[in-house]
Specification:
The complex is a heterodimer of chains A (337) and B (286).
Chain A lengths: L2 H26 L3 H26 L6 H17 L5 H23 L4 H21 L1 H4 L5 E2 L6 E3 L2 E3 L4 H23 L2 H11 L1 H6 L4 H27 L1 E2 L6 H14 L6 H19 L4 H14 L3 H20 L11
Chain B lengths: L1 H31 L7 H19 L5 H21 L6 H22 L5 E2 L7 E4 L2 E4 H23 L1 H11 L1 H6 L4 H23 L4 E2 L3 H16 L4 H19 L4 H18 L11
Helix pairs in contact in B: 1-5, 1-8, 1-9, 1-10, 2-3, 2-4, 2-8, 2-9, 3-8, 5-6, 5-8, 6-8, 9-10, 10-11
Classes of the chains: A mainly alpha (337), B mainly alpha (286).
Chain lengths: 337, 286
């Protein structure tokens, strides 16, 4: 088994699993888990937005919940107050998240490291408190409920997210598309620019990269990802609440990302899955499941400081070295470093 | 009107002194050890809960003033050894580790103390006339205690062997180790002392605020604000910023609701971050 064949095998089985979820899961357990997996997909997109900034540009954001909240309220207010149908409301959520990310990013990316982390949390707190105090509009911590408009209407047939299977595939499609977009960006010259800034922003600026503009682009992209996940979550829960804009929500995205593996494409997905699955399993048996989550977070950073995906990559690299060692010796011109 | 302003401003001032006790520890841990301590607000919360338990166990309020910092010191030292030390000062990992810690502390309190917030009766009842208003005696007393603790802490840092070691290790670990300072032990002690100080702040504040397992969640951003506005690593600046922020929030609260007050201090904070990231007081001290 080589590394490549293992990874292809895993990718194929993961894709097969994700596509067969609406049939496989009810057969194995019950429908409840289909909605849990839908939720995991949405939150992993949210974690990916923290990962884009921290893992690929080196900016630790503690305020991604702000853009999540804007995506969420864009959808909820669009439907509830403006009477928009599905797609315009979805668009409103995403556009307002991007706009907010652009405005706050113009200020935030001027700072780095500690100061960046603090200013992102400060911005998100300002809007959290605004949302809490503007109760007639936002519903405050209680939030606002709305009823779902249909997604598509072809003649007589109506497609709506009230059908759990359709909802699952809709979320899966949107989340996969976003991950694909992120993958393309990371592997483009723009993405290489991000990595250069992450590794050393001074050198990046010396080779002619505009650090400020690149950071701003990444910040807006992260705002987009968080906004899409917030909009999806609003559709999924049929409501929006100010409590999702609190700094602890942003913190969870950072924790999921780091435990899963920051700077890897699927780290956020793995971390989010781990925490949500444990929460769902343990919380039905034991009220104090937070203890397990807390313990797990601590153990994860002590024993897998590069995250679960980082640990996996380490094993795969060692596997590759073993294969290379067992292969017939080849002539090398230069000693390996 | 004048009375309300005065009352809220006084409340703010005293709250700021207590926050300063907590923010000081955060300043050192965050600014100098490079550890982003999400659990720091919970250290304070644990202090309020310890005060509650010692009052209900012994019937004597004042025992909490000893119990909270002592137990706080022990927990802090254990935390440093078990959780903080293995991550070798990596700031990003410290977020996850202290997030986990925060969950564990909150949940442990929820199991033992319960989820319902409770109020504690101040041991000194009554009011005194002050600038024309009747002001609670206990709050004045708490302010005095906080001032004494702050002064004592700065004296400790300047004049005791452990205090000097702490500053040395913070300043330059390599040289400190070369001079024979047991850096590892100093780190453990440092964490213990900061936890003790935050827990002591909690015990002092317990009759003023509510005793609640989520009590640290609101305190944490406020402490971070004080640390940044005061300037990272500038301890005197941190104290000044905590007092100033709470005082200003108190003033704004007399004309608007607390949320507006909180938003205005957050906006002030953004301005400071963008215009004077080195802190408001750089150049005034040292």
């Amino acid at each position: 088994m080589t590394r490549r064949s293992i990874e292809i095998g895993m990718a194929v089985s993961a894709a097969t699993f994700l596509i067969s979820v609406p049939w496989l899961i009810p057969a194995l357990t019950d429908n409840f888990w289909v909605s849990v997996i839908t939720e995991i997909l949405i939150w992993s997109l949210f974690a990916a937005s923290a990962n884009l900034l921290f893992g690929y540009v080196g900016l630790l954001s503690f305020g991604q919940a702000l853009y999540f909240g804007f995506g969420m309220y864009g959808v909820a207010l669009g439907i509830d107050h403006l009477g928009l149908s599905f797609w315009p409301a979805f668009g409103l959520g995403i556009v307002s998240a991007i706009a907010m990310a652009l405005v706050s990013g113009v200020f935030a990316v001027r700072l780095s490291w500690h100061y960046f982390a603090i200013i992102t949390v400060v911005f998100s707190l300002i809007f959290y408190f605004l949302a809490v105090s503007m109760k007639p509009l936002t519903g405050g911590d209680d939030g606002i409920n709305f009823s779902l408009p249909p997604v598509f209407r072809f003649g007589g047939s109506i497609w709506s997210l009230t059908d759990p299977t359709f909802q699952y595939f809709f979320v899966l499609a949107v989340v996969s598309l976003c991950f694909f977009l992120m993958y393309r960006v990371i592997n483009s010259p723009l993405g290489k620019g991000f990595l250069a800034i992450r590794d050393n922003d001074l050198r990046a600026s010396l080779i002619g990269l505009n650090v400020y503009v690149l950071r701003l682009i990444a910040f807006v992209m992260a705002g987009f990802l968080a906004g899409v996940s917030g909009a999806l979550f609003a559709f999924f829960g049929r409501y929006a609440s100010a409590s999702y804009m609190f700094y602890q929500v942003s913190g969870e995205a950072v924790v999921w990302t780091i435990v899963g593996g920051a700077g890897t494409m699927f780290g956020p997905l793995v971390g989010t899955t781990l925490f949500i699955v444990i929460r769902e399993i343990v919380s039905s048996h034991w009220e104090h499941h937070s203890l397990i989550v807390g313990l797990l977070a601590i153990l994860a950073v002590i024993f897998a400081p590069k995250g679960i995906v980082g640990l996996w990559n380490g094993w795969m690299t060692r596997l590759g070295e073993r294969d290379a060692a067992s292969a017939p010796p080849r002539l090398t011109l230069q000693a390996e470093p | 009107m004048r009375d309300t302003v005065l009352l809220l401003a006084m409340n703010g001032l005293i709250w700021g002194l207590i926050i300063a006790l907590i923010a000081l520890g955060l300043s050192v841990i965050f600014g100098l050890l490079d550890i982003i301590n999400i659990a720091h607000g919970d250290f304070f919360m644990v202090g309020t809960v310890l005060a509650w338990f010692s009052l209900s166990a012994t019937g004597n309020f004042w025992i909490g003033f000893i119990v909270a910092p002592v137990i706080g010191f022990v927990i802090g030292a254990i935390i440093q050894r078990l959780v903080i030390q293995p991550i070798h000062g990596a700031a990003a990992l410290s977020i996850v580790a202290t997030f986990g810690l925060s969950l564990i502390l909150q949940e442990t309190v929820r199991i033992t103390f319960g989820a319902t917030p409770r109020r504690m009766l101040a041991p000194i009842q009554g009011t005194v006339p002050l600038f024309g208003i009747d002001y609670e005696i206990y709050r004045l007393f708490a302010a005095g205690i906080a001032l004494v603790a702050l002064a004592g802490f700065f004296l400790f840092l300047q004049h005791t062997k452990l205090g000097i070691w702490m500053r040395a290790v913070r300043h330059d670990r390599e040289t400190a180790v070369a001079m024979g300072i047991p850096a590892q032990r100093v780190y453990v002690m440092t964490f213990g002392v900061w936890f003790a100080l935050a827990a002591f702040g909690g015990a002092v504040a317990a009759p003023i605020t509510t005793v609640d397992f989520r009590g640290g969640v609101d305190v944490l951003p406020f402490c971070f604000m004080a640390v940044i506005i005061g300037g990272l690593g500038n301890l005197a600046g941190t104290v000044a910023a905590a007092v100033l922020l709470a005082f200003l929030e108190g003033l704004v609260q007399s004309v608007a609701d607390p949320t507006v007050a909180r938003i205005s201090s957050l906006v002030l904070m953004s301005a400071v971050l963008l215009l004077r990231p080195q802190g408001l007081f750089k150049g005034f001290t040292r």
